Amino acid sequence: MSWAQRTSIVDQFSAAVSPRQREEGPQHKPLLDKVVVVGDCSTTVGSGIAYELLRQGATVVAPLRCAEHVEQLQRDCEGVPAASLHPLIADLSSEAGCTAFVNQVLERHGQINHGVSCFGSFWQGGQLTDQPLEEFSAMLHGPPTAHFLFAKHVLPALKQSPASSFLFVSEGAGKRMVHPDSSLFSVAASALYGIILAAQEQYADSLFRVNEMRLYAMLKRHGDIGNHQFRDHFGTKAYSHRKVGRLVSEALLTSKHAERIVVTPAMLDGATVTV
Questions:
Q1: Digit-coded pLDDT (tens) for 150-182
Q2: Structural domain tally of the chain?
Q3: Domain-located, residue 21
Q4: What pLDDT score does 116 carry?
Q5: Helix (H/G/I), strand (E/B), else coil: 41
Q6: Is residue 273 included in any domain, yes or no?
Q7: Where residue 221 sits, what CATH number does that domain have?
């Protein structure tokens, strides 16, 4: 290989790497000193959000149900500042548990700058008219209840500032049918949209922002996808959860009041830094 060819390769490498170095360097931490509460970081999407927020300098408080979830999140967040991750064992399924959690965060950190409500799990148990009432009730008391309790207790505790925000992470299932057998998944997702609208109306005149990020893609943990490639899972193209984390961090910094951010597969295929 000639000297000119080697020089050209080095120049191309430097051009590709230098933006990443600027982004990950100590001087570029847009969420530095910001306290972000993310629930639930035991989910695939939640752990990707925590990872990216930590990379951007945020102090991330993660309410988790058990020690096993804490260990999983710590593994998911290897490579970013561990000292800024604060997992807490908390019961967010009750009013008392949510109150205790928020009080603990305020006592330890003094403020909450951002809240990210990220709860949910996929369901594909059959068509609507085949479901017993018990299953219908269970779905309504699953993710929608978690979002409701989290929002009810975190929203009033947010710092009153234009730089603060609350972000609901939702799925497209409430607006589109994924599959006839995912019937009650769509029912539960639709209930969440009512919660979002009610919260946005209540805080329409507040200084902080209440927004929604709607995901129209299947996401897997970054390590399950592999760097610089995307794989099919059950016939559906899956994307790295860290890419959603980057979009969330951007939303916390730049979104407008009552904004809906629709995340499509095309957005997730765009240029991004993979680590």
A1: 999 999 999 999 999 999 998 877 667 777 888
A2: 1
A3: no
A4: 98
A5: coil
A6: no
A7: 3.40.50.720
